[in-house]
Amino acid sequence: MGILSDYLPLYARGAAITLCLLVSALALGLSAAVPLAVLRNSAYPWLRWPVRTFTYVVRGTPLLVQLFLLYYGLAQFPTVRASALWPLLSSAWFCAIAAFAVNTCAYTTEILASTLRALPPAEAEAGVAFGLTPWQNLRRILLPSAFRRALPAYSNEAVMMLHGTSLASVVTIVDLTGAAREVNSRLYLPFPAFIGAALGYAAITFALVALFHAAERHWVAPLRRTD
Amino acid sequence: MRLAQGLLMSSLLCAGAGATGTMPLRIGVEGAYPPFSQVGPDGELSGFDIDIARALCAQMQTPCELVQQNFDGMIPALNASKIDAVIASLSITAERKQSVDFSDKYYKTPGRLVARRGSLPDASVAGLADRRIGVQRASSYDRFATDSFVRSEIVRYTKQDDAFLDLASGRIDAVLCDSVAAHVGFLSHADGADFAFAGPLFVQPEYFGEGAGIAVRKGDTVLRDKLNAAIAAIRTDGTYTTIQSRYVDFNLYEDAPAAHREQSGLLLGYGNSLLRGAALTLVLALCSLGLALSLGVAGCAAKLSRWRMARTLATVYTTVIRAVPDLVLMLLVFFGGQVMIDRLLAQVRHDAQVDIDPFVAGVATLGFIYGAYFTESLRGAYLAIPTGQIEAAVAFGMKRSTLWHRVLAPQMLRHALSPLLNNWLVLIKSTAIVSVIGLTDLTQRAGLAAGATHQPFLFYAVVGLVYLGFCAASEGIAAVIQRTLTARGLG
Predict the structure, then answer these.
(1) Cβ contact A122:A128 at 8 Å
(2) Chain B within 8 Å of A66 (Cβ-Cβ)?
(3) A202 at the B interface (CB within 8 A)?
(4) Looking at CA atoms only, how far is residue B421 from chain A in angstroms?
(5) Interface contact B325-A177, CB threshold 8 A
(6) Which of A171, B98, B196, B370 is least crowded, fewest Cβ atoms below 10 Å from its Cβ?
(7) Closest chain B residue to the Cα of A168, Cα to Cα
(8) B219: three-class secondary structure by DSSP
(9) Which residues of B touch A194 (CB under 8 A)?
(10) Does A167 contact B at CB distance below 8 Å?
């Protein structure tokens, strides 16, 4: 690994970029997923179906293809290039974060929606019995309860998203994988180059898992006692 | 379990199909660097490099196989003995000479900057400050730009075509590349109408060397001398001039053949190519599924085993695999696996050779990764069976095989169906990333078609639809299996 010491700053910058991509995508994806998950369980088909179609299409296609569609695909149309959105869409950063956020949003929506459906009916009934309005019931009782219960499934999604960010290297962003590819193309030493990146990802994965475990101990364990 | 055995068999057959039998001369070519090298709608390679390669093989009277590779994987593949020579407009440079040997040059053209007309009045280092310059990753232009345009931002692409797509869409300010490649691959297209060459001719020999040569492994002087003799022969007998006039003259005075190709038929004529890519993607996914299921069964057995060693090994396997991205593992297996196999073989016997092609690397990596996920799914299915049932079966005096056959396997199938379906849906979508290591699967072919027709949205949308179809079909088949199980009282 001594050979790589010159390239350590490149890897460190790459890891920072990977983390930045991950955090932005997860934050955006989760914020959008909360209302979508509620709509997904709506009693009205015209609210339910668009969300269902969205999650079905996004979850049924590869992330790499979604990224290519956003990055190369949209740029094909002169109207897009002339539009006010172009300064954003022209940046590889924006496209990568947007593609990752849309992807994780679809999965998170399904996780939250199915947790909401599986909540013990007594929780909602208790809220109604206390005289809460449907909106208060959702905000005070159902969503917090669903968040806790969805935590284990969401931690898997966060790790999958971390792995997904490695695709940013395909659209010119020098993330952790991009750094390894650059090192390999300069030194022609695949083992140190890619194992360096793999170690970085493993460290981030384990940190994420530890973080979620701590969160579960804090928020989910008390729930188990009362179940 | 019979299903798993069948799938293992088919995965072995798939692996066998990827290995090479008798050894023709394997020449690495690129396929995304028009007019030197490009892939048509029919999947056929064409271009100056390709014609030169074929002419040299005919001259040497050697059977040849053209192996398509991404440019940045070319020298690693050569040194890993996946290919024997590289004819891919590779500039002869001092830096590269440390890794490979070169033939005499077979062409030489200057490098140029391409930019929107009038947008780069001053192409000096200061004039280019803060501009974004696109280059092909690991090319001479990459090195030259990195060292020379120190005040600019260098943006690196895997394929030259992608750099032109981004130049046209305004994401970068200029592209630095070979002048002929720029003229034919971009400036003569409709997209390139507003663009022109800017700045001086770049011919610095310390970067661009003595021109483009054919790379062979270090010390392979026999092949190098044969290639040099063949280059000299086609230069004198007129073959070279014929090929050259087909590209350079034609391209300089008329439109490029690629631009004027009849683009009609299903998906501008690329329908068949995409169909073949889709078939390859499906075969790749099924072979990976076979390997993953076998590894999953083995891993599950190890995790439930009485031996601590087996349990630890299986835990390390599932933990490590699930901590590293697919793409990183795939690049490691593709580039690194070959280096390792070569070292191992060199200790046994010198002439032995085993190749990893992108297909085998893809199956191995995906099978290995999803084996870890399958291990967990199968283990979960086993743990879902109440222990009381096992105890009851033992109390009835059932043998271990009967216990598996009558009690465990049927119920595991029921519990495992839904998680295995989920694992499979993730697996099939992961096949798209095998295109990054150069397998001509659906996504790779769509990328080549997008580069040639300048219609990326159309082609990637089609890829998305095909994957959606695969997923929908998988869910349909799983539903049928579920119904059959229910009908037999197992649902």
Answers:
(1) no
(2) yes
(3) yes
(4) 13
(5) yes
(6) B98
(7) B327
(8) coil
(9) 328, 331-332, 335-336
(10) yes
Query: Any long-range contacts for B266-273 (C-beta under 8 Å, 24+ apart)?
Result: B267/B449, B267/B458, B267/B459, B267/B462, B268/B41, B268/B449, B268/B453, B268/B455, B268/B458, B269/B41, B270/B41, B270/B445, B270/B449, B270/B453, B270/B459, B272/B41, B272/B42, B272/B43, B273/B41, B273/B42, B273/B43, B273/B445, B273/B449
The string of pLDDT tens digits covering residues B402-452 is: 888 888 888 888 888 888 999 999 999 999 999 888 788 899 888 878 877
> B162-189: per-residue pLDDT in tens?
898 889 888 899 999 988 788 877 887 7
- Tell me, what's the pLDDT at A164? 95
3 state SS of B304: coil
**Nearest one of A209, A92, A198, A120 to A157, comparing CA atoms:** A209
Question: Between β-strands B195-202 and B111-116, what pairing exists: parallel, antiparallel or unpaired?
Answer: antiparallel
Q: Per the CB < 8 Å rule, is B431 touching A198? A: no
Comparing CB atoms, the residue among A62, A66, A194 nearest residue B328 is A194
B48 phi and psi angles, rounded to 5 deg:
-60, -50
ipTM score of complex: 0.89
* Averaged confidence pLDDT in chain B: 82
Chain B closest-CA separation from residue A1 CA (Å): 15
- DSSP one-letter string for B87-133: EEEEE--HHHHTTEEEEEEEE---EEEEEETTS-S--STTTTTT-EE
Beta-bridged to residue B90, according to DSSP, are B213
Residues contacting B10, CB < 8 A, separation 6+: B286, B287, B290
Q: With an 8 Å Cβ cutoff, are B460 and A65 in contact? A: yes
- Given a contact cutoff of 8 angstroms between Cβ atoms, the answer to whether A169 and A178 are in contact is yes
Maximum alpha-carbon separation in chain B: 91
Contact B324 A163 (CB under 8 A): yes
Q: Which uninterrupted H or E stretch holds B40?
A: none
Residues 6+ apart with CB under 8 A from B414: B381, B485, B490, B491
CB contact under 8 A, B322 and A68: no
Q: Are the beta carbons of A73 and B461 separated by less than 8 Å?
A: yes
Size of interface A-B (CB pairs under 8 A): 158
Say what the pTM is. 0.72
Give B261's DSSP letter. Answer: S
Question: Is the CB of B456 inside 8 Å of chain A's CB atoms?
Answer: yes
